[in-house]
Amino acid sequence: MRVLETTVRASEGIAVGRAFVVDRCTASTSYEKGAPEVEQNRFEQALQQSREQIETLAADSEIFAAHLEIVDDPMLSDAVVAHIDEGDSAHDAVLQASAELVAMFEAIDDEYLAARAADVKDIFARIAANLTGGVKNPFEGVAEGDIVVDAELLPSDMALLDFNKIRGFVTAEGSATSHVCIIARNLSVPAVVGLKGILSEVKSGDTIIVDGSGGRVVIEPDIATLDEYKVRELNHKALLAEQQQAAGAEIFHNGERVYVFANAGSVEDVERAIAAGADGIGLFRSEFLYMQSSVEPSEQQQYEAYLSAARSCKGKPLTIRTLDIGGDKAVPYLGFEREENPFLGWRAIRVCLELRDMFCRQLRAILRASAEGNVRVMFPMVVTLEELEQAKELLEQCKSELKSQGVAYDENIKVGVMIETPAAVLIADSLASHCDFFSIGTNDLVQYVMAADRANAKVANLYNPYSKAVLRAIEMVIAAADAADVECGMCGELASDTEATELLLGMHLREYSVNISSISKIKYQLNNLLK
Q1: 460 or 348, higher pLDDT
Q2: 409 phi and psi, to 5 degrees?
């Protein structure tokens, strides 16, 4: 019996089954490198072949809709051609460009946008395969009850994997925010990812246990361990059934409604969240529209996306966070300069108040969508009252423009502020008198309060949402909101942590905006606490 462990928490649950180790080898067709124009032609042919394959796949799977946009993005082809011009073969150029663009996306500290790295890697892998030997189905032979073991699972694999057949999966690479992990959590399929060395420890046919809750894989377990985990598997399934029953419930505490909203990074996320029992969307990340294109999305494109999201909410609140770029989310076409401290630099509301024409295009799109849905607008990274006042002035200006054009919108659209800096905490009472709601963004708040980069492993011990300083900051914000009678929610990771639910409820937090997979868990926890 061998046990491997990781600190990454991918998808909870227990699975016991036979290992199916994926073989990614393809028949390779070697060729001699030609002149740059020859290699560019080879690349363009492989790109076209990949585009046609993705178009076919997109007809049956929404996963590939985003792939179609990426494969046609000039940024992708320009990156490859640049390496071909430097003397690389088409295949080597694809690998180089893939590494560069994937690294750019992986550096982004945002769940939705970081997950796009997998989409980019997936597309480049397809192009590379079409250059050398063609694409094959690596999951041929997966049997009912198997546990898939691979180096990494990519978005395109989701169209090939039958999640109703497999019991779980394990990967050597990947993160908890990857596309496949999000799907696994939504479908309650146990998973462990980022388990270094797994491919050298297990072979197809081995009996393995996947403990997604503990980040553990047991290979060839003894009888006692096997029996123990089979009981735990049954208990976990019973708990999931209880949690699902709580997903659609309305929750009240002392006569007050307690809401469990969801965080969403796309229209598809909104649809999944509402289907999973969310009371609305507490955070809709609008930057996905800007990051997936090489040019700024038009007002009409944004309007159509926001309208679709609002309609998907079916009358429930849709809270659209205005563009939050800068810091770790630079958009090339906006000309961001390199900054020594990007998290303390030109980002979020600071960018929008400087690029006012762009900001107004977004605000008009949001306002237009508000005519057909319960839409709220939320400004990120506000640190002064003047920033909020300027943003509201621009919103009023956009209202006047639409009114003069006879375009409908919600004249009483609610305006909120993200509380994610010590400055915002300290002036929360002033901000509360000029807005309708707060949303506490604990991911940024923790790193700013504790002066600890959340991506830096050396200060990971300081990045603690349960520190006294952070908890006191949260209490101050909720108290300021209560005093001004404005709504107060939380959309950071702490809201999704069931261990924090009782503490936050005691602080009088009444709105929890969580990741989609946590909706039923948080509702179940709240119901148990309020019995």
Answers
A1: 348
A2: -165, 165
0.85 exceeded by pTM: no
* Cα angle value 447/487/307 (rounded, 5°): 90
Give, rounded to a whole angstrom, the gap between the first and last alpha carbons of the chain: 43
Confidence of residue 393 (pLDDT cuts 50, 70, 90): very high
pLDDT for residue 85: 92
Closest CA to 19 of 163, 232, 167, 236: 167
What is the DSSP track for 18-59?
Answer: EEEE--------------HHHHHHHHHHHHHHHHHHHHHHHT
Cβ neighbors of 403 (< 8 A, separation 6 or more) are 409
Angle (CA) 417 422 423, round 5°:
65
Q: How far apart are CA 82 and CA 240, in angstroms?
A: 50
Alpha carbon 434 to its chain's center: 30
Backbone angles phi, psi at 417, to 5 degrees: -130, 135
Q: Which residues are catalytic?
A: 179, 491
| Poorest-pLDDT segment among 160-164, 196-200, 248-252 | 160-164
Structure-token match 């309007």, residue found: 303
Q: According to the model, what pLDDT value does residue 391 have?
A: 97
**Burial grade of 70 (CB within 10 A; 0-12, 13-18, 19 or more):** buried
pLDDT of residue 523 exceeding 60, the answer is yes
DSSP collapsed to 3 states, 345-372? CCECHHHHHHCHHHHHHHHHHHHHHHCC
| Contact (Cβ atoms closer than 8 angstroms) between residue 280 and residue 259 | yes
